[in-house]
Amino acid sequence: MARKLHESARFARSGDLRSGRASGDGVRREGRGVSMGRVAIVLFCLLLSLEAAVALETTDRVVFHEIYYYVPGFDKHNEYIELINAGTEVAYLDGAVITDEGDSWMPEGAFRFPGMHGGVLFPIEPGEIVLIAVDAVQGELEPDLRWADWEFWHAADDNDNPDVPNLEEITGSNVDMALANEGDGIVLGTGVDIWPAISCGTVVDGVNWDEVPDPVPIGPGVCVDAAYAPACPQGNCLGRCPGGFDSNLSSAEDWFIMIPSPGQENISMHPDHCTSRVPDEPPPSSWGVVKALYR
Question: Where are the beta strands (DSSP E) in 6-96?
Answer without folding.
Answer: 62-68, 80-85, 91-92
